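EI: anyone free to look at a 475-residue chain?
SC: sure, send it
EI:
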Amino acid sequence: MKKPFYIAFIAAFLALCLLPTAALLCGYEAENRENRPLARRASLFGRDGLNLSFPAEFDDYFEDHFGFREEMVTAFHGLTMALLGDTLNEKVIVGKNGMLFYSETLDDYLGRNLLSAEEIARIAACLRIEQAWCEARGIAFTFSIAPNKNTVYPENMPSRLAPTRESGNRERLYAALSEAGVPTVDFTALLLAHKADGQLYHDRDTHWNERGALLAYNAIMERVAAGAEAGAEYETYASLTPTTVYDGAGDLHNFVLPALAGGRPEPDYGIESDFAYDEGARPAQDTTFGTTSSANGVSLHLFRDSFGNALLPLLSTNLGRVKYSAEFPYNYTLLNAETPDAVFVELVERNIKNLLAAAPLLPAHEMEAPALAGMESGAARLTQYRRGGYTQLAGCFDAAAQPERILVLLSQGDAAHCYEAFPILEEQAEALADGMTAPRGFSLTLPERLSGEYEVTVLADGVRYDAGTITLADK
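SC: here you go
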Protein backbone atom coordinates (compact mmCIF):
# COMPACT_ATOMS: atom_id res chain seq x y z
CA MET A 1 0.00 0.00 0.00
CA LYS A 2 2.84 2.35 0.83
CA LYS A 3 4.87 1.67 -2.33
CA PRO A 4 2.43 3.37 -4.77
CA PHE A 5 2.25 6.34 -2.43
CA TYR A 6 6.05 6.67 -2.34
CA ILE A 7 6.24 6.39 -6.13
CA ALA A 8 3.55 9.04 -6.55
CA PHE A 9 5.26 11.33 -4.07
CA ILE A 10 8.66 10.98 -5.77
CA ALA A 11 7.08 11.52 -9.20
CA ALA A 12 5.28 14.63 -7.97
CA PHE A 13 8.49 15.95 -6.39
CA LEU A 14 10.52 15.38 -9.59
CA ALA A 15 7.79 16.98 -11.69
CA LEU A 16 7.83 20.02 -9.42
CA CYS A 17 11.62 20.28 -9.70
CA LEU A 18 11.54 19.93 -13.48
CA LEU A 19 8.59 22.27 -14.02
CA PRO A 20 10.63 25.52 -14.09
CA THR A 21 13.08 24.11 -16.66
CA ALA A 22 10.27 22.62 -18.74
CA ALA A 23 8.43 25.94 -18.75
CA LEU A 24 11.57 27.76 -19.86
CA LEU A 25 12.18 25.27 -22.68
CA CYS A 26 8.57 25.71 -23.80
CA GLY A 27 9.08 29.45 -24.20
CA TYR A 28 7.74 30.75 -20.90
CA GLU A 29 8.76 34.38 -20.46
CA ALA A 30 7.64 36.31 -17.40
CA GLU A 31 7.27 40.07 -17.34
CA ASN A 32 10.26 41.85 -15.82
CA ARG A 33 8.87 43.89 -12.94
CA GLU A 34 12.19 44.42 -11.19
CA ASN A 35 14.03 47.72 -11.41
CA ARG A 36 17.04 46.17 -13.12
CA PRO A 37 17.92 44.55 -16.46
CA LEU A 38 17.70 40.76 -16.45
CA ALA A 39 20.61 38.63 -17.62
CA ARG A 40 20.82 38.03 -21.36
CA ARG A 41 20.73 34.62 -22.99
CA ALA A 42 24.17 33.01 -22.80
CA SER A 43 25.98 31.93 -25.98
CA LEU A 44 28.36 28.96 -26.11
CA PHE A 45 30.44 30.56 -28.84
CA GLY A 46 31.54 34.18 -29.22
CA ARG A 47 33.43 36.17 -31.81
CA ASP A 48 36.71 34.73 -30.55
CA GLY A 49 35.52 31.11 -30.45
CA LEU A 50 34.46 29.14 -27.39
CA ASN A 51 32.94 31.32 -24.68
CA LEU A 52 34.79 30.31 -21.50
CA SER A 53 32.35 32.36 -19.41
CA PHE A 54 29.37 30.37 -20.67
CA PRO A 55 28.74 28.40 -17.42
CA ALA A 56 28.55 31.55 -15.28
CA GLU A 57 26.52 33.47 -17.89
CA PHE A 58 24.09 30.57 -18.30
CA ASP A 59 23.69 30.34 -14.53
CA ASP A 60 22.84 34.06 -14.38
CA TYR A 61 20.41 33.72 -17.27
CA PHE A 62 18.65 30.69 -15.80
CA GLU A 63 18.39 32.32 -12.39
CA ASP A 64 16.61 35.31 -13.96
CA HIS A 65 14.40 33.42 -16.45
CA PHE A 66 13.40 29.98 -15.13
CA GLY A 67 9.73 29.17 -15.44
CA PHE A 68 7.37 30.51 -12.78
CA ARG A 69 10.24 32.42 -11.22
CA GLU A 70 8.03 35.34 -10.13
CA GLU A 71 5.50 33.03 -8.50
CA MET A 72 8.18 31.11 -6.60
CA VAL A 73 9.99 34.28 -5.50
CA THR A 74 6.67 35.72 -4.31
CA ALA A 75 5.76 32.56 -2.40
CA PHE A 76 9.15 32.42 -0.69
CA HIS A 77 9.27 36.07 0.35
CA GLY A 78 5.60 36.10 1.35
CA LEU A 79 6.27 33.16 3.67
CA THR A 80 9.40 34.70 5.23
CA MET A 81 7.64 38.05 5.74
CA ALA A 82 4.73 36.30 7.48
CA LEU A 83 6.88 34.05 9.67
CA LEU A 84 10.06 36.07 10.23
CA GLY A 85 9.08 39.65 9.51
CA ASP A 86 11.90 39.75 6.95
CA THR A 87 12.23 39.08 3.23
CA LEU A 88 15.73 37.54 3.36
CA ASN A 89 16.33 39.68 0.26
CA GLU A 90 19.52 41.71 0.61
CA LYS A 91 17.95 44.72 -1.13
CA VAL A 92 14.75 45.07 0.91
CA ILE A 93 14.11 45.84 4.58
CA VAL A 94 10.67 45.11 6.04
CA GLY A 95 9.59 48.05 8.17
CA LYS A 96 6.58 48.85 10.30
CA ASN A 97 3.07 49.74 9.09
CA GLY A 98 3.53 47.88 5.81
CA MET A 99 6.49 49.95 4.62
CA LEU A 100 9.43 48.48 2.75
CA PHE A 101 12.83 50.22 2.66
CA TYR A 102 15.83 50.00 0.35
CA SER A 103 18.85 48.42 2.04
CA GLU A 104 21.28 50.75 0.20
CA THR A 105 20.01 53.55 2.44
CA LEU A 106 21.13 51.79 5.64
CA ASP A 107 24.50 53.54 5.90
CA ASP A 108 22.80 56.93 5.79
CA TYR A 109 20.15 55.84 8.28
CA LEU A 110 22.55 54.26 10.75
CA GLY A 111 25.22 56.95 10.36
CA ARG A 112 27.96 54.53 9.37
CA ASN A 113 30.58 54.58 6.59
CA LEU A 114 30.13 58.34 6.38
CA LEU A 115 32.17 60.55 4.10
CA SER A 116 35.12 62.25 5.77
CA ALA A 117 35.21 66.00 6.36
CA GLU A 118 37.73 66.26 3.51
CA GLU A 119 35.43 64.37 1.13
CA ILE A 120 32.49 66.61 2.03
CA ALA A 121 34.67 69.66 1.37
CA ARG A 122 35.71 68.27 -2.02
CA ILE A 123 32.07 67.68 -3.05
CA ALA A 124 31.21 71.23 -1.99
CA ALA A 125 34.15 72.51 -4.06
CA CYS A 126 32.90 70.59 -7.11
CA LEU A 127 29.41 72.05 -6.81
CA ARG A 128 30.86 75.55 -6.27
CA ILE A 129 32.74 75.19 -9.58
CA GLU A 130 29.53 74.09 -11.32
CA GLN A 131 27.69 77.06 -9.83
CA ALA A 132 30.41 79.50 -10.97
CA TRP A 133 30.34 78.04 -14.50
CA CYS A 134 26.56 78.49 -14.69
CA GLU A 135 26.52 81.99 -13.25
CA ALA A 136 29.25 83.11 -15.69
CA ARG A 137 26.71 82.29 -18.40
CA GLY A 138 23.78 83.96 -16.68
CA ILE A 139 22.27 80.64 -15.52
CA ALA A 140 20.87 80.29 -12.01
CA PHE A 141 22.20 77.16 -10.25
CA THR A 142 20.55 75.18 -7.42
CA PHE A 143 21.51 71.88 -5.79
CA SER A 144 19.10 69.63 -3.88
CA ILE A 145 19.01 66.24 -2.19
CA ALA A 146 15.95 64.00 -2.37
CA PRO A 147 15.91 62.30 1.05
CA ASN A 148 15.87 58.56 1.50
CA LYS A 149 12.48 57.28 2.63
CA ASN A 150 13.80 56.31 6.06
CA THR A 151 15.06 59.88 6.55
CA VAL A 152 11.44 61.05 6.40
CA TYR A 153 9.92 57.96 8.07
CA PRO A 154 12.51 56.70 10.61
CA GLU A 155 9.66 55.63 12.92
CA ASN A 156 8.74 52.91 10.42
CA MET A 157 12.19 51.33 10.34
CA PRO A 158 12.68 48.08 12.32
CA SER A 159 13.39 48.68 16.01
CA ARG A 160 16.50 46.47 15.82
CA LEU A 161 18.21 49.09 13.63
CA ALA A 162 19.33 51.93 15.89
CA PRO A 163 20.85 55.01 14.20
CA THR A 164 23.59 57.12 15.76
CA ARG A 165 23.04 60.77 16.53
CA GLU A 166 25.98 61.84 14.37
CA SER A 167 25.21 64.21 11.51
CA GLY A 168 25.04 62.36 8.20
CA ASN A 169 26.36 63.15 4.74
CA ARG A 170 23.27 65.15 3.82
CA GLU A 171 23.37 67.55 6.78
CA ARG A 172 27.15 68.02 6.55
CA LEU A 173 27.06 68.67 2.80
CA TYR A 174 24.28 71.24 3.12
CA ALA A 175 26.33 73.02 5.82
CA ALA A 176 29.42 73.03 3.58
CA LEU A 177 27.42 74.34 0.61
CA SER A 178 25.92 77.10 2.76
CA GLU A 179 29.42 78.17 3.77
CA ALA A 180 30.54 78.07 0.11
CA GLY A 181 27.57 80.17 -1.00
CA VAL A 182 26.06 77.47 -3.23
CA PRO A 183 22.24 77.82 -3.48
CA THR A 184 20.31 74.77 -2.28
CA VAL A 185 16.77 73.58 -1.64
CA ASP A 186 16.28 71.45 1.46
CA PHE A 187 13.66 68.90 0.45
CA THR A 188 14.11 67.04 3.73
CA ALA A 189 13.04 69.96 5.90
CA LEU A 190 10.14 70.63 3.53
CA LEU A 191 8.85 67.06 3.62
CA LEU A 192 9.24 66.71 7.37
CA ALA A 193 7.27 69.91 7.86
CA HIS A 194 4.38 68.45 5.82
CA LYS A 195 4.19 64.90 7.20
CA ALA A 196 0.88 65.74 8.88
CA ASP A 197 -0.66 66.47 5.46
CA GLY A 198 -0.62 62.79 4.57
CA GLN A 199 1.83 60.12 3.46
CA LEU A 200 4.60 61.47 1.23
CA TYR A 201 6.32 58.27 0.05
CA HIS A 202 4.98 55.07 -1.45
CA ASP A 203 4.65 52.18 1.01
CA ARG A 204 6.56 49.70 -1.13
CA ASP A 205 8.69 51.93 -3.32
CA THR A 206 11.83 53.99 -2.70
CA HIS A 207 10.33 57.22 -4.08
CA TRP A 208 8.05 60.01 -2.99
CA ASN A 209 4.40 59.74 -4.04
CA GLU A 210 2.42 62.46 -5.82
CA ARG A 211 1.89 64.42 -2.58
CA GLY A 212 5.63 64.45 -1.89
CA ALA A 213 6.44 65.24 -5.52
CA LEU A 214 4.05 68.23 -5.45
CA LEU A 215 5.93 69.69 -2.49
CA ALA A 216 9.24 69.26 -4.29
CA TYR A 217 7.79 70.67 -7.53
CA ASN A 218 6.58 73.84 -5.82
CA ALA A 219 9.96 74.35 -4.15
CA ILE A 220 11.69 74.04 -7.52
CA MET A 221 9.23 76.35 -9.25
CA GLU A 222 9.54 78.95 -6.51
CA ARG A 223 13.31 79.04 -7.11
CA VAL A 224 13.17 78.90 -10.93
CA ALA A 225 10.28 81.32 -11.39
CA ALA A 226 11.77 83.86 -8.99
CA GLY A 227 14.94 83.97 -11.10
CA ALA A 228 13.10 84.48 -14.38
CA GLU A 229 12.68 87.94 -15.88
CA ALA A 230 9.69 89.68 -14.26
CA GLY A 231 8.97 86.39 -12.51
CA ALA A 232 6.75 83.70 -13.96
CA GLU A 233 3.34 82.51 -12.93
CA TYR A 234 2.73 78.80 -12.41
CA GLU A 235 0.09 76.48 -11.03
CA THR A 236 0.72 75.44 -7.41
CA TYR A 237 -2.20 72.95 -7.34
CA ALA A 238 -2.83 74.08 -3.76
CA SER A 239 -6.58 73.99 -4.25
CA LEU A 240 -6.64 70.30 -5.23
CA THR A 241 -7.69 67.59 -2.81
CA PRO A 242 -6.38 64.12 -3.63
CA THR A 243 -8.47 61.00 -3.85
CA THR A 244 -7.15 57.64 -2.70
CA VAL A 245 -6.39 55.10 -5.39
CA TYR A 246 -4.98 51.60 -5.17
CA ASP A 247 -2.47 51.36 -7.94
CA GLY A 248 1.17 50.53 -8.63
CA ALA A 249 3.25 47.89 -6.94
CA GLY A 250 6.49 49.84 -6.46
CA ASP A 251 10.11 48.89 -7.07
CA LEU A 252 10.65 47.30 -3.63
CA HIS A 253 7.41 45.36 -3.92
CA ASN A 254 8.56 43.96 -7.25
CA PHE A 255 11.86 42.83 -5.74
CA VAL A 256 10.12 40.50 -3.31
CA LEU A 257 6.49 40.00 -4.44
CA PRO A 258 6.69 40.30 -8.25
CA ALA A 259 3.70 38.03 -8.96
CA LEU A 260 1.29 40.05 -6.81
CA ALA A 261 -0.49 43.28 -7.71
CA GLY A 262 0.37 46.21 -5.48
CA GLY A 263 -2.97 47.42 -4.18
CA ARG A 264 -1.41 49.93 -1.76
CA PRO A 265 -3.20 53.27 -1.17
CA GLU A 266 -1.81 56.32 -2.99
CA PRO A 267 -2.91 59.96 -3.28
CA ASP A 268 -4.09 60.98 -6.74
CA TYR A 269 -4.60 64.67 -7.54
CA GLY A 270 -5.99 64.09 -11.02
CA ILE A 271 -3.57 66.62 -12.55
CA GLU A 272 -3.75 66.78 -16.33
CA SER A 273 -0.45 67.15 -18.20
CA ASP A 274 -0.16 69.69 -21.00
CA PHE A 275 3.19 69.49 -22.78
CA ALA A 276 4.91 67.80 -25.71
CA TYR A 277 8.05 65.70 -25.85
CA ASP A 278 10.72 66.59 -28.39
CA GLU A 279 10.33 64.72 -31.65
CA GLY A 280 11.85 61.25 -31.37
CA ALA A 281 12.23 61.42 -27.58
CA ARG A 282 11.93 58.14 -25.68
CA PRO A 283 11.53 59.16 -22.03
CA ALA A 284 11.74 55.58 -20.72
CA GLN A 285 15.04 54.88 -22.51
CA ASP A 286 16.82 58.19 -23.21
CA THR A 287 19.18 59.62 -20.60
CA THR A 288 18.51 63.08 -22.03
CA PHE A 289 15.36 64.48 -23.63
CA GLY A 290 13.32 67.66 -23.66
CA THR A 291 9.74 68.92 -23.37
CA THR A 292 7.97 72.09 -24.46
CA SER A 293 4.74 73.79 -23.44
CA SER A 294 2.97 77.10 -23.92
CA ALA A 295 3.04 77.89 -20.18
CA ASN A 296 5.69 80.66 -20.34
CA GLY A 297 9.13 81.48 -21.69
CA VAL A 298 11.09 80.04 -18.76
CA SER A 299 13.58 77.24 -19.44
CA LEU A 300 15.14 74.74 -17.05
CA HIS A 301 17.81 72.05 -17.28
CA LEU A 302 17.22 69.37 -14.63
CA PHE A 303 20.02 66.98 -13.77
CA ARG A 304 18.03 64.25 -12.07
CA ASP A 305 17.72 60.64 -11.04
CA SER A 306 14.61 58.44 -10.67
CA PHE A 307 13.08 60.87 -8.14
CA GLY A 308 12.67 63.24 -11.08
CA ASN A 309 10.17 60.92 -12.79
CA ALA A 310 7.28 62.17 -10.67
CA LEU A 311 8.37 65.78 -11.21
CA LEU A 312 8.40 65.53 -15.00
CA PRO A 313 4.68 66.07 -15.81
CA LEU A 314 4.42 68.90 -13.28
CA LEU A 315 7.51 70.81 -14.41
CA SER A 316 6.90 70.21 -18.12
CA THR A 317 3.32 71.50 -17.89
CA ASN A 318 4.34 74.70 -16.09
CA LEU A 319 7.60 75.63 -17.85
CA GLY A 320 7.99 76.55 -21.48
CA ARG A 321 11.11 74.43 -21.95
CA VAL A 322 12.67 71.69 -19.83
CA LYS A 323 15.65 69.46 -20.62
CA TYR A 324 15.99 66.37 -18.43
CA SER A 325 19.30 64.57 -18.05
CA ALA A 326 19.96 61.40 -16.07
CA GLU A 327 23.53 61.20 -17.38
CA PHE A 328 26.09 60.86 -14.62
CA PRO A 329 28.61 62.36 -14.10
CA TYR A 330 26.74 65.50 -15.10
CA ASN A 331 27.32 66.61 -18.67
CA TYR A 332 27.28 70.40 -18.97
CA THR A 333 28.12 70.29 -22.68
CA LEU A 334 24.41 69.52 -23.13
CA LEU A 335 23.87 73.21 -22.39
CA ASN A 336 25.90 74.28 -25.44
CA ALA A 337 22.93 74.00 -27.81
CA GLU A 338 20.46 75.69 -25.44
CA THR A 339 21.21 78.08 -22.61
CA PRO A 340 18.49 77.64 -19.95
CA ASP A 341 17.41 80.20 -17.40
CA ALA A 342 18.21 77.78 -14.60
CA VAL A 343 20.04 74.55 -13.80
CA PHE A 344 18.64 72.44 -10.98
CA VAL A 345 20.40 69.34 -9.65
CA GLU A 346 18.27 66.69 -7.89
CA LEU A 347 20.23 63.84 -6.30
CA VAL A 348 18.95 61.12 -3.98
CA GLU A 349 20.58 61.08 -0.54
CA ARG A 350 22.07 57.60 -0.80
CA ASN A 351 24.11 58.65 -3.87
CA ILE A 352 25.86 61.70 -2.41
CA LYS A 353 29.15 59.80 -2.37
CA ASN A 354 28.90 59.27 -6.13
CA LEU A 355 29.69 62.95 -6.64
CA LEU A 356 33.34 62.02 -6.02
CA ALA A 357 33.38 59.13 -8.52
CA ALA A 358 34.26 61.32 -11.51
CA ALA A 359 34.20 64.99 -12.46
CA PRO A 360 31.35 66.48 -14.48
CA LEU A 361 31.99 67.04 -18.18
CA LEU A 362 32.26 70.81 -17.93
CA PRO A 363 34.54 72.88 -20.22
CA ALA A 364 36.58 74.88 -17.72
CA HIS A 365 35.84 78.56 -17.13
CA GLU A 366 38.96 80.72 -17.49
CA MET A 367 40.02 82.86 -14.54
CA GLU A 368 42.81 85.25 -13.62
CA ALA A 369 46.08 83.53 -12.75
CA PRO A 370 47.66 84.29 -9.36
CA ALA A 371 51.17 85.67 -9.02
CA LEU A 372 53.73 82.86 -9.11
CA ALA A 373 56.61 84.71 -7.48
CA GLY A 374 57.66 83.25 -4.16
CA MET A 375 55.79 79.97 -4.56
CA GLU A 376 57.44 76.73 -3.47
CA SER A 377 58.08 74.11 -6.18
CA GLY A 378 56.89 70.55 -6.51
CA ALA A 379 55.99 67.95 -9.12
CA ALA A 380 52.64 66.69 -10.37
CA ARG A 381 51.80 63.71 -12.54
CA LEU A 382 49.46 64.19 -15.47
CA THR A 383 47.55 62.19 -18.06
CA GLN A 384 45.64 63.44 -21.10
CA TYR A 385 42.70 61.74 -22.84
CA ARG A 386 39.54 62.48 -24.82
CA ARG A 387 36.08 62.45 -23.30
CA GLY A 388 32.88 63.50 -25.01
CA GLY A 389 34.81 65.28 -27.76
CA TYR A 390 36.90 67.30 -25.28
CA THR A 391 40.46 67.00 -23.99
CA GLN A 392 40.57 65.91 -20.38
CA LEU A 393 43.52 66.56 -18.08
CA ALA A 394 43.69 64.45 -14.94
CA GLY A 395 46.45 63.82 -12.48
CA CYS A 396 47.64 64.12 -8.91
CA PHE A 397 50.34 65.54 -6.66
CA ASP A 398 51.54 64.70 -3.15
CA ALA A 399 50.40 67.10 -0.41
CA ALA A 400 49.83 66.70 3.31
CA ALA A 401 46.47 68.49 3.27
CA GLN A 402 43.68 68.77 0.72
CA PRO A 403 43.95 72.21 -0.92
CA GLU A 404 40.94 74.49 -0.82
CA ARG A 405 41.38 75.19 -4.54
CA ILE A 406 43.43 73.57 -7.30
CA LEU A 407 44.33 75.73 -10.30
CA VAL A 408 45.85 74.53 -13.56
CA LEU A 409 47.97 76.97 -15.54
CA LEU A 410 48.63 76.35 -19.25
CA SER A 411 51.52 78.46 -20.57
CA GLN A 412 52.43 78.98 -24.23
CA GLY A 413 55.15 81.57 -24.65
CA ASP A 414 53.91 84.79 -23.10
CA ALA A 415 50.31 83.62 -23.17
CA ALA A 416 48.75 81.74 -20.26
CA HIS A 417 45.34 80.30 -19.40
CA CYS A 418 44.25 79.52 -15.84
CA TYR A 419 41.40 77.21 -14.82
CA GLU A 420 40.10 75.77 -11.56
CA ALA A 421 40.17 71.96 -11.55
CA PHE A 422 37.79 69.58 -9.84
CA PRO A 423 39.45 67.99 -6.76
CA ILE A 424 38.83 64.47 -8.02
CA LEU A 425 41.24 61.62 -8.72
CA GLU A 426 39.89 60.14 -11.93
CA GLU A 427 40.04 56.42 -12.63
CA GLN A 428 42.32 57.14 -15.60
CA ALA A 429 44.83 58.80 -13.25
CA GLU A 430 44.73 56.39 -10.30
CA ALA A 431 47.90 54.57 -11.42
CA LEU A 432 49.78 57.89 -11.27
CA ALA A 433 49.27 57.95 -7.49
CA ASP A 434 51.44 54.87 -6.94
CA GLY A 435 54.18 55.66 -4.43
CA MET A 436 52.61 58.90 -3.21
CA THR A 437 51.96 59.35 0.49
CA ALA A 438 48.86 61.55 0.14
CA PRO A 439 47.85 61.91 -3.50
CA ARG A 440 45.56 64.85 -4.29
CA GLY A 441 43.69 64.35 -7.52
CA PHE A 442 42.60 66.98 -10.01
CA SER A 443 40.45 66.83 -13.14
CA LEU A 444 39.89 69.40 -15.86
CA THR A 445 37.99 69.56 -19.14
CA LEU A 446 39.73 71.96 -21.51
CA PRO A 447 37.80 74.38 -23.72
CA GLU A 448 37.81 73.48 -27.41
CA ARG A 449 39.59 76.64 -28.58
CA LEU A 450 43.07 75.70 -27.26
CA SER A 451 45.68 74.21 -29.60
CA GLY A 452 49.43 73.69 -29.71
CA GLU A 453 51.96 72.83 -27.00
CA TYR A 454 51.54 74.04 -23.42
CA GLU A 455 53.55 73.88 -20.22
CA VAL A 456 51.25 72.68 -17.44
CA THR A 457 51.62 73.92 -13.87
CA VAL A 458 49.33 72.99 -11.00
CA LEU A 459 48.88 75.64 -8.30
CA ALA A 460 47.63 74.71 -4.82
CA ASP A 461 48.14 76.23 -1.37
CA GLY A 462 51.09 78.39 -2.42
CA VAL A 463 52.92 75.56 -4.19
CA ARG A 464 53.52 75.32 -7.95
CA TYR A 465 53.68 71.72 -9.18
CA ASP A 466 55.34 71.16 -12.56
CA ALA A 467 53.22 68.70 -14.58
CA GLY A 468 55.20 68.68 -17.88
CA THR A 469 53.87 69.55 -21.31
CA ILE A 470 50.80 68.66 -23.35
CA THR A 471 50.04 68.99 -27.06
CA LEU A 472 46.54 69.89 -28.22
CA ALA A 473 45.51 69.32 -31.81
CA ASP A 474 43.96 72.10 -33.87
CA LYS A 475 40.15 72.02 -33.78
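EI: The longest helix spans residues 2-25.
SC: 👍
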